[in-house]
Amino acid sequence: MMDRFHYRQDREAYSAARVKALEALLIKKGVITDKTVDTVLDFFETKMGPFNGAKIVARAWVDPAFKDRLVADTPKAIAELQLPEGMAGAEGEHMRAVANAPHVHNLIICTLCSCYPWPVLGLPPYWYKDPTFRSRAAREPRAVLMEFGLAVPDAVQIKVWDSSAQIRWFVVPERPAGTDGLSEAELEALVTPEAMMGVAVARAA
């Protein structure tokens, strides 16, 4: 990650210690039980996460008509797939998909806070919530993408989509070249959360 989005190396341990202390306090006060956190974690490990987004993108890659429906009415198209219940629940309200094309690259940000389509992308990474990323990506997206290692040619237009409580955006990246013989399941493995946020592109294995 670029230096301006650098975080202390012990951030995971630091955050874990704070969470553990808060969890202990909430249990002591009877707000939650000792199983509440495990239940929430299991939910995001098994039901809501980037594996759902990968299924949606892979279907769009193999079915152009589905891709059109996904962009036109995202919730309705997602409802066609056999995905876990809750896709339109918490943090999934009003999801909208935008599709990359040879001359257009889409980037998702949230300038206000960190609105994010959890059901298809999982929990947002640290840098997505960073004020520096949020402000610079809106002003100079091409430069920020270069810092992520993604060089977008000048001939390609970059569109920045600002998520909010009303609309949570995600990207349908372009299908990588040389993947014509892959199955839909194999294509899913090529889809990353970063590609669905627009800070990367999908690549063949």
TrEMBL record:
Family stated for the protein in its record: Belongs to the nitrile hydratase subunit alpha family.
Enzyme class (EC, first level): lyase
Top-level taxonomy: Bacteria, Pseudomonadati, Pseudomonadota, Alphaproteobacteria, Hyphomicrobiales
Reaction(s) catalysed by this chain's protein: an aliphatic primary amide = an aliphatic nitrile + H2O
EC id: 4.2.1.84
Keywords annotated in UniProt: Lyase, Metal-binding, Plasmid
Record NCBIfam families: nitrile_alph
Name the UniProt record assigns to this protein: nitrile hydratase
Native source species: Rhizobium indigoferae
GO MF annotations in UniProt: nitrile hydratase activity
Gene3D superfamilies: Nitrile hydratase alpha /Thiocyanate hydrolase gamma (3.90.330.10)
Domain Nitrile hydratase alpha/Thiocyanate hydrolase gamma: 15-200
